[in-house]
Design goal:
Blueprint: H1 12-19, H2 24-29, E1 46-50, H3 60-75, E2 84-89, H4 104-113, E3 118-123, E4 142-146, E5 166-170, E6 173-175, H5 176-184, E7 191-200, E8 204-208, E9 214-220, E10 229-233, E11 239-245, E12 249-253, E13 260-266, H6 273-282, E14 288-293, E15 311-317, H7 318-325, E16 333-340, H8 352-356, E17 360-363, H9 371-380, E18 386-389, H10 396-412, E19 418-420
Parallel strand pairs: 1-2, 2-3, 3-4, 4-5, 5-7, 6-7, 7-9, 8-10, 9-11, 10-12, 11-13, 13-14, 14-15, 15-16, 16-17, 17-18, 18-19
Amino acid sequence: MYVEDRISNFPDHIRCHILSFLPIHESVRTSILSTKWRNLFASISTVDFDTYLLRGLTERNIIDSFKNFVDRLLKFPDQLSLDCFRLRADGIASWNDGYHDFDVSGWICGAVCRGVKEIDLYLDNFCHTLPALLFTCHSLRTLTLVAKDSKIFKVPSEVCLRNLKTLCITNSVLVGDSLNRLISNCHVLEDLTFDECSVVNARDINIQIPSLKSLFLDFFFSIGDSNYVVVINAPNLVYFRYDSVIVKGYNLSNMKSLEKAEICIWFGSSNYETSAIHLFQGICNVRSLRLTIHEVIPLTSRFPILHNLIEFEFLGKEIWLVEFLHCAPNLKTLTVLLQDVAGTRWNIDAPSCLSFHLKKIEISDYTTDMIEIVHYLLDNSMVLEKLIIRVNAMNATRASKARNQLLPLLKSSKKDLIVIL
């Protein structure tokens, strides 16, 4: 029975779009279907290479054929523009072993010359410098770089990424001046991420981008490398995530649009308590906050009042929770995961949020020594509608003991107020 081949009769641009959803080796295989498909794969708009294709290959001619194929695909001068170029190169240093010469920088330049809009690079143990052409690519909208076990990430003296909207750099060592040069030349950036990166030789990290909407800073440091200032001026910032040791100083201004923040901090020095206060002053307009504090240091300064805060998730020491409840007068939802209970006296004056606004409280990983906290919250929460207590992280014996401890509260409380999970 004759079956009509309708797909082969589609226009070239539609068939290219179909091929863009296939792994590159599957796209190449379509060239044997008919003359209409013979060279169509070379015109696909998404090029996605994963070095798993090379795993298990030992014959030199096969590996060279793959390298030559990629060279031809990316370096044809008459090819259509690229929407996306992805390269996942695990163990890239082992490729160039004296027999093979994989021109990864040339591949990146080839994508740039084809007007690529998105570049996604995973370069494991990459020992070369990224091509300067990458940092002057006017067509680029999204740049994602993971440089695991690679050398210091260097930015050339000339940078102009005037249309870049998303920048994500992971597992990289960044030099302060080089980092600031990159940031300052991305004028329309909306999403900026530095994930599990380290910073060296920095006096400041300067982020002043009016268009920025999302910012994620996850930095780790060796001892002594936190002696610098973080400067942020982002009037349209909606989401801010910061995961780092407290540094020398913070200058966070003009963040009136901030809706949600996730702050995870620890202290390398007790001298930086004032810096921590400045960090929270910078995000004082936030409406939803997830806060993790790993250590406790003596508090000599009060935290700023977070008038707009209505959702608060806290992970840390009991003493910091007490402090923050007094700084959130309009809080409506509270989620708590305490690292330990230090025996704080809960006969303190009730924060105003408990009396007027707090409607839902959730205590995760409950332990029996938190019973005083539960009593305090129930006694002082005037508008509370639901208290959720999670004991499911315990073993069966401890969970049973916790439920028996909470049972009298469950019986004496309003109907359906307390939920034990």
